[in-house]
């Protein structure tokens, strides 16, 4: 499947980008990220046009990246500003691509398509990342699988009963409620009503002997931006009166078969409890790294280089409906881009 270029992708959490050179491959293009002296983030193609050495192996001097091979310097707009050799003449083609960036919600978003189409207003909003009532922990992992396999995983949360011991419930997997589609937004709504809390909610402080309603409402927006409204209330209670721990999931393709997975857990209770923050970070890392990731990578390994799930003719369950809708939206977006000819520089494939 062709990767969608006309979209904002998470390039990094804001705290990752410092006055150093950070290398990250996005949509099969090596990119180098850094902060300018005024604090604004910048992103350049991570390849010197002279002998194709990665620029991240060089040095950041002011707002200029000096190539570590022959000393050519490039500013944050991608123009070569210094040639230390001969008469100092700068070759006409001595420039690298500069990518549009927007920093918001604690995320640095990158636009990989034609710059003139980049509209910051289309960046998906994640309310818990902006709401001071929530305390948030952030994580990242690299997954050797196509990003749509991760979306599939997140849009069918019945897998929690079988993959995640902490989420297991004696009453069985969650039931899927009506999960609407609104434009390019897909919902996957799963509930467990009038049940005792699982291990996860007991850890968060829900009384172990009290029955309650447990919700998992996942919102998906293309190409891979998901927000999970997860919480538990007294039976029949209002979400705002119970425990809420919304979780942000930002999926950015590295290649056709590898992905960057940025996640954040927010909460509206015990917001000053540093011990709980540390425990949630530990639990999140353990769940994503040791439970979800091995399953998804095993899928990709058996699919080999195939990224179109439907070509493999999978059987489908009723709980697959949201993930199928999301895949169809992505397919339509990719085909539309191809028809419109979203021309961009030919990427340098990272190994």
What order do the SSEs take from the amino end to the carboxyl end, as H and E?
Answer: EEEEEEEEEEHEHHEEEHEEEEEHH
Low-confidence stretches: 343-351
Q: Tell how many strands the DSSP assignment holds.
A: 19
Whole-Å distance between the termini? 19 Å
At the first level of CATH, the class of the largest domain is: Alpha Beta
Helix content range: 10-25%
CATH topology of the largest domain: Naphthalene 1,2-dioxygenase Alpha Subunit, Chain A, domain 1
Q: What is the CATH superfamily label of the largest domain? A: Naphthalene 1,2-dioxygenase Alpha Subunit, Chain A, domain 1
Major sheet: 9 strands, antiparallel
Indicate the structural class. Answer: alpha+beta
How much of the sequence is in beta strands? 25-35%
- Our count of helices gives 6
CATH structural architecture of the largest domain: Alpha-Beta Complex
The average pLDDT is 94
Provide the number of structural domains: 2
The shape is globular
Q: How big is the Rg?
A: 22 Å
Notes on the structure:
With 351 residues, the chain is of the alpha+beta class. It folds into 2 domains: 8-120, 3-layer Sandwich (Rieske Iron-sulfur Protein); 124-338, Naphthalene 1,2-dioxygenase Alpha Subunit, Chain A, domain 1 (Alpha-Beta Complex), CATH 3.90.380. Helices cover 21% and strands 31% of the residues. The protein has 6 helices and 19 strands. The chain has helices at 127-130, 147-155, 160-163, 199-204, 274-303, 321-340; strands at 8-13, 22-26, 29-35, 41-45, 59-61, 64-66, 73-74, 80-82, 101-104, 107-111, 135-143, 175-176, 181-182, 185-195, 212-221, 225-234, 243-244, 247-255, 258-267. The strands form 4 sheets. Strands 11, 12, 13, 14, 15, 16, 17, 18 and 19 form a 9-stranded antiparallel sheet that branches. Helix 2 (147-155) runs antiparallel to helix 6 (321-340). The longest helix has 30 residues, at 274-303. It is globular and about 80 Å long. The model is unreliable at 343-351 (pLDDT under 50).
